[in-house]
Design brief:
With 281 residues, the protein is an all-alpha fold. 72% of the residues lie in helices and 0% in strands. The chain is globular. The protein starts with a helix and ends in a 7-residue tail after the last helix.
C-alpha cells in the first residue's frame, strides 16, 4: 500500500517538474539578455558572462537609440504589423464565415485549398516572389513584405475562424435575416462581435510573428530607412565583426518588450481563441 502511494505521489511530481524545467529553459535566455543589457564594456570583457552586473548601467539603452535609427525601425515595423493584421483579420474572418455558414457546392474543397497553404514552406517562395516584385516595381516597399505575410497567415487564421463559426447558432442568423438584415450587416453586427476571442488570438499570434519577421525584410528590403526592427539589430555590428554587446542586448530588450506586454495582457483571450468553438464569446 505504501509503495503504491509513493508511486502515485511520484507520478504527480513528475509532470510539474518537467514543466518547471521547460519554463526555466525558455525564460533563462530572456533573463540573461535583460541582465546583460545593464553591464558595462569592462564587465563584458573581464567578468564571467553569466555574472550579475555590479550596477544598473542605463548607458546601453541610450547607446542603443543613439547608434541606430531604432525609432525609424520601430515605425516601419509598426506600419507593417498594422497592415498585415488588417489584411489577415478582414480576409480570414470573411472567408471563414463564407466557408462555414454560406453553404455552396465547393465550400469544403475551398477550405481544403486554403489549409494546403500551411504545407508550403516560406523559403521556396522567396525567389519567385523576388522576381515578381522586381518586375512590377514593388521591391524595397512596405507592400513587398506585407503581402506575403498576409498570404502565409491566412490558412491558420481561416481555420480558427471556421472552427469558431461552427458553434455559432444558425437560428441567430436566420432570425436576423427574417428581420430584414442583409448578410453584410449580419456578419458585421452579430457574427464579428461574437468572434472577439478569435480576433484577439489571430491578431496577437500574427502581430508577434510580423513584428519578429526577418526573412521577408532581409530578402525584399534594401534602403536603410525602410528596414524593420529585426533588421536594425545589425547596426550594432561594427568593423571586423566587433559587436557592442551592451547596446545589442538593450536593443533586443526594447524590441521584444512590446510583444511580451501584448501577450501578458491578452493571454486569457488568446487561450479562449485557441480553443475556438469550445469556448464561446
Amino acid at each position: 500500500m505504501m509503495i503504491e502511494k509513493l508511486r502515485t505521489k511520484g507520478s504527480r511530481l513528475v509532470f510539474p517538474a518537467i514543466l518547471l524545467i521547460i519554463m526555466v529553459i525558455q525564460i533563462y535566455p530572456i533573463l540573461w539578455v535583460f541582465v546583460s543589457s545593464f553591464k558595462t564594456i569592462k564587465e563584458f570583457r573581464s567578468n564571467n558572462p553569466f555574472a550579475l552586473p555590479n550596477s544598473l548601467y542605463f548607458g546601453n539603452y541610450i547607446n542603443a537609440i543613439m547608434k541606430s535609427n531604432l525609432l525609424v525601425y520601430f515605425k516601419n515595423s509598426l506600419i507593417v504589423v498594422v497592415f498585415v493584421l488588417l489584411g489577415i483579420l478582414i480576409l480570414s474572418s470573411m472567408a471563414g464565415f463564407a466557408l462555414e455558414k454560406l453553404k455552396f457546392k465547393y465550400n469544403k474543397a475551398g477550405l481544403l485549398l486554403f489549409l494546403l497553404g500551411i504545407m508550403v514552406p516560406i523559403q521556396v517562395t522567396l525567389i519567385p516572389l523576388y522576381q515578381i516584385y522586381s518586375k512590377i516595381g514593388i521591391l524595397d516597399t512596405y507592400t513587398s513584405i506585407i503581402l506575403p505575410q498576409i498570404g502565409f497567415g491566412l490558412p491558420v487564421s481561416i481555420y480558427l475562424f471556421v472552427a469558431f463559426y461552427k458553434f455559432v447558432p444558425n437560428e441567430v442568423m436566420e432570425s436576423a435575416v427574417m428581420d430584414g438584415s442583409s448578410m453584410f450587416k449580419l456578419f458585421v453586427h452579430i457574427v464579428l462581435p461574437m468572434s472577439k476571442n478569435v480576433i484577439v488570438t489571430v491578431a496577437t499570434l500574427y502581430g508577434v510573428f510580423s513584428w519578429n519577421e526577418f526573412i521577408f525584410p532581409f530578402t525584399f528590403l534594401n534602403s536603410k530607412n525602410m528596414l524593420t526592427i529585426t533588421m536594425g539589430l545589425r547596426d550594432y555590428v561594427g568593423n571586423y565583426g566587433m559587436t557592442d554587446w551592451g547596446a545589442t542586448f538593450a536593443a533586443i530588450m526594447l524590441t521584444v518588450t512590446p510583444t511580451f506586454l501584448l501577450y501578458f495582457f491578452l493571454s486569457k483571450s488568446i487561450i479562449s481563441g485557441m480553443t475556438a468553438g469550445a469556448v464561446k464569446s
